[in-house]
Amino acid sequence: xxxxxxxxxxxxxxTIQISHLQSNPYAIYRRLRAEAPVVRVxxxxxxxxxxxxxxxxxxxxxxxxxxxxPLTPMKRAFLADTLMRKDGEEHMRERSAMAPAFNPKVIxxxxxxxxxxxxxxYISRLPRGETIDLFTAFAAPYAARCLTxxxxxxxxxxxxxxxxxxxxxxxxxxxxxxPALFAKTDKANAEMDALFDKCAERxxxxxxxxxLSAMVNAEDPIPTSQIYSNVKIAIGGGINEPRDALLxxxxxxxxxxxxxxxxxxxxxxxxxxxxxxxxxxxxxxSSRLVMQDTEIRGYAIAKGEVxxxxxxxxxxxxxxxxxxESYNIFRPKASHQAFGIGxxxxxxxxxxxxxxxxxxxxxxxxxxxxxxxxxxxxVKFWGFGFRGPxxxxxxxx
Length: 397
Ligand code: HEM
What we know:
52% of the residues lie in helices and 10% in strands. It is of the alpha+beta class. It has a single domain (4-395), classed as CATH 1.10.630.10. It has a five-stranded mixed beta sheet with strand order 1-2-8-5-3. A three-stranded antiparallel beta sheet has the order 4-12-9. Helix 8 (134-151) crosses helix 9 and helix 15 packs across helix 17. The protein is globular. The protein starts with a helix and ends with a strand. The structure holds protoporphyrin IX containing FE. Protoporphyrin IX containing FE is lined by residues 59, 83-84, 95, 150, 233-234, 237-238, 241-242, 245, 277, 282-283, 286, 311, 338-340, 344, 346-348, 351-352.
């Protein structure tokens, strides 16, 4: 039988393994951008696209490149299809249902003061003069607490939010179908569903500005199964990205003291934020299913193939950025794809900017002006789908 793969002229790279992509993806992406920007990688069962123009083309053409990647076990993990795997009107309907909670006026009037208060509480608990891991002591719990309010589930503990998020991510990446991982997602789904039932009752009686309240109290609500699965996708995606973004930005600033000084002196936190997520995109890749035979850069791509758009690589494309491998907040302002592009563009973009660039970064350095990395050599970045430092030990002064 002739397979779709045999019909294409896309080069194959057998050398790339998942472990390489987890430990040091950027050297691979730099080589691919120069030598093979459209390449089949058998280890991930997909065709990788590493140039910014190609990732943009794919993500903006949703009719040709569907979000419903059949290779991911996401549906099994979430026990439903989430909005991230839908296209067209169906996707818009579910995205719009959550939209009131992400509205700029609501961010300014409601989330800004609340997140400032949360940041003050959590930063005031950090022990001055000691060395702590900012990953566990601050970045993860701060992201979790902010998210509970945005979603309308403040009854959830930080620890549960962090555990659910990781379990959902592990389940969505459980390509081998490991039963133990799905047993954990099943347990987490049951716990979340029970909590969401209680929270839905509360916001029905007392509507507020959360995403759950907007969805439950809508005139023509989407089905409860979809309300719940989309709250879950936000739990799966709303903790690790702000956490990893914050730790990456801090590492970039600590490694470049002149840039840190400029941030403090000239209030350049927005530039520090955008440059941090360009430099190491917290979500590195996204997949799309090819709906019709097509071509990219002259390579034939058959219907049924899955292409992986590597936004991490697009964000370091030499065609767009000088010296793209460096963290440099002084580089000329340029757009990037770390928040994605097209109809699935990150719904939490403005929230993330507010949480980190406008609230936490200035506050951390105001409280601890002499904060330092305890051991710069000990900071290790890791991850293929999601990427960030595994820990960030700092001395607080
Ligand atoms: C620095 C932080 C963040 C980064 C870098 C980031 C990145 C991304 C990216 C790349 C996508 C698109 C994935 C694709 O194309 O398949 C996405 C989607 C999404 N993000 Fe974020 N994200 C961040 C923070 C957040 C936060 C705080 C929330 C809050 C709930 C959030 C909610 C979402 C949602 C709901 C989607 C799906 C949108 C859709 O499918 O229409 N994100 N994010």
